[in-house]
Amino acid sequence: MIAKLKKIIQRPGFDSFLASAASIGIGLIFGFLLLVVFKSSKSLYGFQQILFAGFSTAGKFSKVLYQAAPLILTGLSVGFAFKTGLFNIGASGQYMMGTFFALYSGIAWQFPWWAALPAAMVGGAIWGAMPGIFKAFFNVNEVITSIMFNWIGLFSVNLLLANIPVVLADFYGASNPDRTANMAAANPAAIIPKWGLDELLGSPYINISIFFSILVAVVIYIVLSKTTFGYELKACGLNRNASIYAGINAKRNIVLSMVIAGSLSGLGGGIYYLSGTVQYTIEKILPAMGFNGIPVALLATSNPIGIIFSALFISYIQVGGEAMQPEYAKEIIDIIISVIIYLSAFALLFKGFIRKMLRKSTANELALASDVTTASDLATASDAAVDAAEMTDTDGTTDQKSKEASQ
Domain range spanning residue 250? Predict the structure, then answer.
């Protein structure tokens, strides 16, 4: 049993798992203390909602899956850029452009959902390419340009939608000029199919987008881990000068990295607003879905498979935060997520500490094994010396007796 446990601990990635678990655990403990401070009499109730509300009913569980689908994609967007040495903080802007391309193609051009989703990817890719080009050819930090393009994307989408009447709700008889049309009225073919999942779980939210997002995560994992293209992208991220010396086109890979990252965020916007259950409202704030991709990627240490589970976790506690109302404001869950984000930034520190402890434990075991081996070797050598001495004495006695007999 102990040997199996040691093998698990020594597996690659186990330290990353422990670092993420530590971030989540400390964040939840802080959240509980926060609940105690605000309303101690209901703190256990509130914490119980955070931990168990997501599984309490089929409807809430379906909402967890529904919200996790775009989170997986924005997390993949940020994580993919991290793997290639870039910080894609512009996921929100790319998400916005993907939303616009999906809604415009689905409503104005009457595209079906399977054509509107690639359009969303194109919109996100265009917006992701901009910071990539500035980084590759002008060495402008991608964080600065990404933040700028977030706001440019938000107000550009608002301006475009406000001046295209055919995509707005009031064009179809609704009294909401500040939001896009209900997809069920504008183009039912653009709604992502549910394949009976809504009847199975008894919720209008759920559709096949969660399975689609998981499939995309698996594809990204294969690309990064099993292909030459993925190796070149990661090589540029680890050491750009060395990759250039090895003949890798670093500028091309920087742009491609941001294009792929942008397309993933754009796809996230597309699957969220083509669900048929929400309408885009013209606002002056960036959507949280893009920024929430950052903690999703950090918690998973940018591992595409890990991003699936971290996105499900973030979505799960968000549903729990909604269930705490009216006893607590739902913003408390945002504070908890913020703490987890902050701690996730220290994931590398946690990993370094865990690796140090594991190395120390392994070194102690090796030293102990070496001492045991040395003692065993000494004992064996001592026994051999005694045996040799006894054999010498026996041989000497035998020779003496032979001489006496001959005389």
Answer: 55-311
